[in-house]
Write a structure and sequence with these properties.
This protein has 68 residues and is mainly alpha-helical. It has a domain of 40 residues. Helices cover 56% and strands 0% of the residues. The protein is built from three helices and no strands. The N and C termini lie far apart (62 Å).
Length: 68
């Protein structure tokens, strides 16, 4: 790797670290509580919990072939 390329890579790394340093962190317990609340609020829209209605399922195979 040339010195010019390594300097460029290090500059990108410094910029990324500056961006990450500005991000304000929160406690894990707060993040977990917020995630749990979000999941509870949106459970009624979760297709993994309640399934997809047969009429609106794009992955359901057709019952008969339209070409025959």
């Amino acid at each position: 790797m040339s010195s010019e390329a390594s300097v460029s890579a290090l500059q990108c790394l410094v910029e990324q670290l500056k961006l990450e340093a500005c991000v304000e962190g929160i406690k894990v317990s707060q993040a977990a509580a917020e995630l749990q609340q979000y999941c509870i609020q949106n459970a009624c829209n979760d297709a993994l919990l309640f399934g997809v209605p047969a009429g609106s399922n794009p992955f359901l195979e057709p019952r008969s072939c339209p070409l025959t």
